Amino acid sequence: MGRLLRFAGRWFKKGLAAFLLAYKFVALTAFTVVVIAVLIEVACRFGVAVYHDLGASKSVVSRPATKQVKPASTAKRAKKPAAPLNTAAPPAAAAPAKPSPTPARPRPVARPKGPPPVTSRAELIRRFGLGAYVQESRRVARDLYHFKPYVMWQHRPFAGRAINITADGTRRTWYNSTDAKAKKVFVFGGSTVWGAYANDRDTFPSQLALLLNKKVGSFKVMNFGQNAFGSTQALILLMLEIRRGNVPDVVIFLSGVNDSFIATCYPAVPGSIYPLFGFYERLSAGAPWREVLRDVYKNSDAIQLLVRAGVLRKVLFQEYRPRLGLYNLKLRDKVRLAARMYRRNVLMAEALAQKFNFKVFFFWQPALYLGNKPLAPFERYLVQVERTKNDYAFLAFKHVPLVYREIRRRPPASKNFFNLSGMFRNHRGLVFGDYVHLLAPGNRLLAAKVVEIIGPRLRATGGKTKP
Description:
14 helices, alpha/beta, five-stranded parallel sheet
């Protein structure tokens, strides 16, 4: 019995020693990992800050230096000829010296006409009178996800100086005709149609109403744009309006960016809705540690750099993969599926137009993502600096053009589909307030292009399709 106890005691001591050694090893390893992570985080934050500073310094527009014109040098005087040695005649009188020419004055440098270019967001807000819009849009954004059946959300009513939203969730449209027989025009789309970076009178539907009533006839335009809406949500919203008896004469869909972004960037599920995972979180009980991990993912520069490098892209939203089969598709398959879904939405919208006797037009919008526009100074700042601060903007510059390219390769089989992605190819002025949304000048140009396309068709058919 004594030998057994001594034997057990020796093995207990050896086991305890091994356990303490393993504990020390694990503690030392954990401490080392934490120290390395902190050092990487500090280095990444420093690197990102330096990168932003370098990008900002490159984007500053420098004025051309004034060239100093040197005055012309005075002409050298001709040497006086020497008199002959043995001569009695007095030397001839010297010719009077020519006066030196006056120095040429430097030519004035031609200064560009108009105000200086916009190079900062503060200057952008001041130049385009968006101060009231910025303050009111923050209040509107808090009510962005007001629930609406079938389309998930719609804006609440709001009254302000720059933003006014009616009781049915549509934004106010200016310049509509007061004629009781005016034709109804419904405009569907995302935040570009709704009017991000634009006051009520400068939105695309308002400018469209101005030009239609000025050049075509009597029209009443309604803005059915909603932030982050895809083409499927817009089509369902049209069906809901028709179901309640509000049948339009003309329907315009402005799409492209949201369908492409939703399919390839976030939530990377073709045909889905933008805040898909947010709705999953609200419908299912989420554990607190998920919120912690999500905050770490969003706020850590080290993790963001790994995501951009493709290291962590595969584990992003891992918890939702069993429920979302489309998320596991390859990028090229998501691109093709997004384009195919849009083409089918076009077919369904045309079927509704034929059945309910209205005219429908489809446009794909321009965007800074596509890289086919000469950049103004502020747009160059957006491309070089601001897109590095947002992971999804970084991805969108790579993925959104792929869907546009697929639509260009296989467009919808409709005579009323028009791809306007290259309409700013030769325009050097400032039209974008960010990567997608248009400022007031851009909305005016877009509305003019749309009226140029649909105007003759509306005059020929009177706004209605042929039965």
